[in-house]
Amino acid sequence: MRKFLTKVAIFTLLTVLILLAGLAMPVTPRASVSEHFSILQKDSLLANADSPRMIFIGGSNVSFGLNSQMIKDSLNVNPVNTGINAGFGLKFMLDNAAQYIRKGDIIIAPLEYSHYTQDCNYCSEALLRVVMDVDRRYSRLLNFRQMLNLFAGVPQYIASKFNPKAYFGFEIDPPHRVNAFNSYGDNCAHWNMENRDFAPHGRLDDFNRQIIGKIKDFENIVEQKGATFYIAYPSYMATSFYKSEDIIAAIRNELEKNFKVLGTPARYMMPDSLMFDTSYHLNKQGADIRTARLIEDIKRF
């Protein structure tokens, strides 16, 4: 029995040491050039862009779906595109942006439809990478629920530190690299690329009405700072849109009862031919069309 317990203790100790070593290891070369590191550029824009400012908050439908130069030329504002990855989760995206809002800012949130169907504390490996690889000070924005959600991904994260492909012979798709963004934060690395084959999104999960409360809390912060808040709709592939029309209609109904809303879901439903590599990612032509519609809707206010 003693030998068995000794072996268990040794195994446990080795496991703990490996886990601690993985956490202590520096960022891998592959991770260091990923899009997750673009949050530093986006936060710098939020901190330093001159007023008047128009700040866009969302996931990759925002980063892949705007031509901010058109917005600047048409509306005489300085656009800041904060979009990176919807997997950061609604709460983190809103809380991070809230730190930088100034009097007179216009905040527009074209959130992904998935944000309205998830728990507001949802977060994925993408956020874990931001906290562990980019800057651990981002952890101060996380609550206990988010910490628990992220903890499940720690073993896989640590395992990636011991993967040779994270150090040698790796390739990262140009649109998903840290340098894929222009000076406004738009992802423009794919603008001269051909559309790719991909599977459309399936049916959305049911609408989570608790999300409205979290967005309301953010709107209150925006207004207390003397800024203005609008909800907008994401660009979304037509094939995926039609699979969830009833859920999207329920989302629209609740949003219009609670917020100032730009446009309609159908207005930002995009033909499949304008999508680049997911149901949310527009190609250059699609980004221009979506931006032109958004400008029209903003001018109505």
Question: How would you characterize the overall build of this protein?
Answer:
The protein is an alpha/beta fold. The chain is 45% helix and 8% strand. It has one domain (32-299): Rossmann fold. The chain has a 5-stranded parallel beta sheet, sandwiched between helices. α6 (90-98) packs parallel to α10.
Mean pLDDT: 93
- Strand adjacency order, main sheet: 2-1-3-4-6
How far is it from the N-terminal to the C-terminal residue, by CA?
76 Å
Helix/strand order, N-terminal first: HHHEHHEHEHHHHEEHHEEH
Residue share in helix: 40-55%
What is the annotated CATH architecture? 3-Layer(aba) Sandwich
Uncertain ranges: 11-20
Kindly name the structural category: alpha/beta
What is the β-strand count? 7
Number of alpha- plus pi-helical segments: 13
**Rg on CA atoms, Å:** 21 Å
Shape: globular
Strand content: 5-15%
How many domain units? 1
Sketch the major β-sheet.
Answer: 5 strands, parallel
List keywords for this structure.
5-stranded parallel sheet; Rossmann fold; 301 residues; 7 strands; 45% helix; 13 helices; single chain; globular; alpha/beta; two-stranded parallel ribbon
